[in-house]
Amino acid sequence: MIDSATLAAGLDPATLSDLLRVAGSPGFDRLTEQIRRTGGCAAPIRLSGGTKLLDPATKTVLHAYTTDAEPGGVLRVACGNRRASRCPACAWTYAGDTYHLIRAGLLGAPDKGTPDTIRDHPRVFATLTAPSFGPVHNRPGNRSCRCGTRHPEDAPELGTPLNPAAYDYADAVLWNNHASELWRYFTIYLRREIAARAGLTQKAAREQSRVSFGKVAEYQKRGAVHFHAVIRFDGPEGPDTPPPAWATLSLLTDAIHAAASRVRVVVPAAPAHGITDDVPLTWGEQIDVQPIGAFGHGEELTEQAVAAYVAKYATKAAETTGTVDHPVGNKEALVLFGIPDHPRRLMEACMDLDAAYPDRRLRAWAHMLGFRGHFSTKSRRYSTTLGALRQVRADYRATQQRTALGLPDPDEHPESTLLVVAHWTYAGHGHTPGESWLAANIHRDIQHNRETAREIRAELDLEGELT
């Protein structure tokens, strides 16, 4: 039920009016159930249609479902958007999947195809950043910024240029645009540097070891992308085999630094568009590599901390710097959206350079400050996949549905083949204002309950270790 005090808590008249309409509708309970099943998705996909479950031998209809009796005649399905700015509920689920993906590659997860022995493999947490494109306002430890001010953590000027007129906006967006290529070359050089330090040919090194990684992209306040990556040594067959004795943490750390320093991507000059010389793109000098310790042994950087950190940034994008989370067609629109000066200049640089490098689609990616890569990626053998994690949820719900309908389990009764006949039509997406308020509160409650349960489990696990 929705009490009157809750309704009066800061709702605008339009939302309140629509919420009262929704709460008084005859299908309110079913609507609430649908929204809860989407996790409180902010922009669900609306489908109309139905499905039938048939016994192919007898042509008997075992179960039939249609949206005709649903609220509004539609079934709501979660949008699955990873961006927290678009859908906090689906982004929260995506972050959770990313956490388990990264964690499985650190702790092991036999049920997900990664052995527990993975914890004994050398692994580091590496951060690769962009070079400087001009001095910016920052917080250098306990010292004052170059401007003479000690900025607070939430100061809006942090990350903005000390002298915008001298800041290299063109190189900054070109670097973002080619960041994925920089990473690709880094992985190539890393394997070469590992072989050289082991005193082996590249072929021999590949026959004795594998390098796996899981990474995420994050925007710095200045608008430059940088990558956080878990990089791990494996044996010749991947995570199921131990790495050779020469595959040490120190060798991996040295190889990462050396490989990063070798990477160089050259963007050709475009004199007709103001780029008079070739633009060499490299990694910045601030490359951080830290060993990842096991949980509960006093290390500063634990497996859980790394997985949580990577998951945190898997749902964030350039909008954290002040841009918008959708494409923008022209410079005039930047003013209408009220984008702050520094990200606006970066977006304008993308639009100005679009004609110079049409294959790079800089205008289309201006809202991402030029970056056009995937935010979360991994090598094939690092651990499980996001698709596999989603399939686990789908299988769980399918099992629940079969149990509720009294249908046989296909794993236990392979002879019980069922035929599914379905027809679905797209019927729109999103919520009305009142439904949006309801979905946000349902998502908040689900998240709170799960986080509370997680904290309780963690306390019980700790008590078990102490006893």
Automatic annotation (TrEMBL):
InterPro entries: RepSA, RepSA_streptomyces. It comes from the Bacteria. This is Replication initiation protein. It comes from Streptomyces showdoensis.
